[in-house]
Design brief:
alpha/beta; single chain
Length: about 525
């Protein structure tokens, strides 16, 4: 398999990159780990930020930039943020052109709502099903353009030669074989790692940090992995997210006595910690939608209303809805420049897989979908420009392929006596307890010790249960990424944004910088 542009990942960044590359005349392929709909973009229901200023509050690109930079808590990249905020309105217009039907005002303009951390009504939405509306439309375009889509192929490793990208090795679930996809350029858009917080996450199970693991093994650095955003309002006992749309439309956060205890539309890290403190006191926290007009519940919040009824047998118009914070978004990723280029020529990393400095220590609510749309499009343009410059394929060394074939053979043996599901559950539990909303150095060191024990004992593990090779590949990546997250968090001896340490509760000026980690440190 040979293509001008290889795109790995089927979220908004990956699909937008594939579509743009096709429109610019490239031979492009979209590779997905499972099905094209198994991504977090599909799960993002609340909305997509773009400063149109349609709501009479004088919002503009300058205000969007300021609030995004403020939300980054001092370590955002101003150039990335400027590019992002300037291009976000055009990105939304592109989506409309692809058939996304966003909610509109009576005058026909795009409707917008407030989201956490913003003073302005900036978030464009399609009721409370924004992600599905966008992804279904992009999927229709992928089919219309007849873009090659390779399903059920998990990316194993990046392949490069002389520091120029050559392609990627893949595990084919159907044949159980290693295959190679060569590309003049590669766009890695396979998402973040919040699914590692298994049983405490809003993410699809596929979000296991594969891009970060691949980048580290390829000699790239990861950046700011300690910053994990916990969404304040997961539906208690489920992985369903009660999106910020509910609070934007008038929902309140209340304690067991029905009393408000926090500004619902403050930044997510602030609201999450406020909820967590209530829960530490032994109090339950609820989302109260009882004063939201029935018409709003039946139109703008219909998805939430239906899911709460289905999962909890609660009537959102009459009952308090129990909530608890869950891992939602990972700000850190593979280190890139402002537009997604890496230190391997021809390799681009975008969306949640990479970190170009747009988010810093805390992502502004509503920025994730627009970030994927903006930099997915830009990366496609840059990838084609690189492919046209090199003209021919870089070639693949036989050693790189044999190395991964041997890896899969070794994992096949381990899979016969390893309960990968149990180990993933344990890793998730440790991450939530020791690298969750509130952290300590002692707790994180214990987490690191256990992750290293799991890694060292895999060959000796003798479970009665077996697993699949794909699960073993994910487990291998999960252990690597979990260790990298712990070490990054231990190195930041302060509290900033989504990273809060009891032993270092203040923000320290000397840590007003990015954290970096490489394979050599793991």
């Amino acid at each position: 398999m040979k293509y001008d542009v290889v795109v790995i990942g089927s979220g908004i960044a990956g699909m937008r990159a594939a579509i743009e590359a096709k429109e610019l005349g490239a031979n492009v392929v979209l590779i997905t780990k499972s099905s094209p709909s198994a991504n977090n973009s599909f799960m993002a229901k609340g909305g997509i930020n773009a400063a149109f200023g349609n709501m009479g509050d004088k919002d503009n690109i300058f205000q969007h930039s300021n609030e995004t930079l403020k939300s980054s808590v001092g370590i955002g990249n101003e150039e990335s943020i400027r590019i992002f905020c300037e291009q976000a309105p055009a990105a939304v217009r592109d989506l409309i052109g692809y058939g996304v039907e966003f909610s509109t005002l009576k005058n026909g303009k795009i409707a917008q709502r407030p989201f956490g951390g913003s003073k302005y009504k900036r978030t464009v939405y399609a009721a409370d099903e924004t992600g599905p509306a966008i992804m279904k439309a992009l999927h229709r375009v992928i089919k219309k353009y007849e873009i090659d889509v390779i399903k059920n192929h998990m990316a194993i490793n990046l392949v490069s030669k002389n520091n120029i990208i050559s392609g990627v090795t893949l595990f084919d679930e159907e044949t159980q074989k290693v295959v190679v996809c060569e590309g003049k350029s590669v766009i890695l858009a396979s998402g973040g790692f919040a699914s590692l917080y298994k049983n405490y996450t809003s993410n699809v199970r596929d979000a296991t940090g594969d891009a970060i693991a691949m980048g580290l093994r390829a000699g790239l650095r990861a950046i700011n992995l300690e910053f994990v955003q916990f969404h304040p309002t997961g539906l208690e006992g489920t992985n369903f997210l009660l999106s910020e749309a509910a609070r934007a439309e008038g929902g309140k956060l209340v304690d067991e006595n029905g009393e408000s205890f926090v500004d619902e539309l403050n930044t997510r890290d602030f609201v999450t910690r406020a909820i967590f403190k209530e829960m530490q006191k032994g109090n339950k926290v609820f989302l109260d939608l009882r004063d939201v007009p029935q018409e709003v519940l039946d139109t703008k919040l219909i998805g939430i209303k239906k899911r709460v009824q289905a999962l909890k047998k609660l009537d959102a118009s009459k009952d308090l809805i129990p909530v608890s914070p869950i891992a939602h978004y990972t700000m850190g990723g593979v280190e890139t420049d402002a537009i997604g280029r890496t230190n391997i020529e021809g390799l681009f990393v975008v969306g949640e897989a990479g970190d170009n400095g747009v988010n810093g220590a805390n992502r502004l609510g509503g920025n994730s979908l627009s970030q994927g749309a903006v930099f997915g499009k830009i990366s496609a343009y840059e990838a084609i420009k690189f492919a046209n410059k090199v003209k021919k394929f870089n070639g693949v060394d036989y050693y790189d392929i044999m190395k991964d074939i041997q890896l899969v053979e070794n994992l096949k043996i381990l899979a016969g006596h390893t309960d990968a599901v149990e180990l993933r559950n344990e890793i998730g539990h440790i991450l939530f307890k020791k690298l969750g909303i509130i952290r300590t150095g002692v707790g994180m060191k214990k987490a690191l010790e256990r992750f290293e024990e799991i890694e060292a004992s895999l060959e000796q593990n003798r479970s009665e249960k077996s697993t699949t090779i794909k699960n073993m590949l994910e487990l291998m990546n999960a252990i690597l990424v979990a260790k990298a997250v712990v070490k990054s968090a231990l190195s930041r001896e302060e509290s900033r944004g989504s990273h809060f340490r009891i032993d270092f509760p203040e923000t320290d000026r000397k840590f007003k910088k990015n954290s970096y980690i490489s394979m050599a440190e793991l």
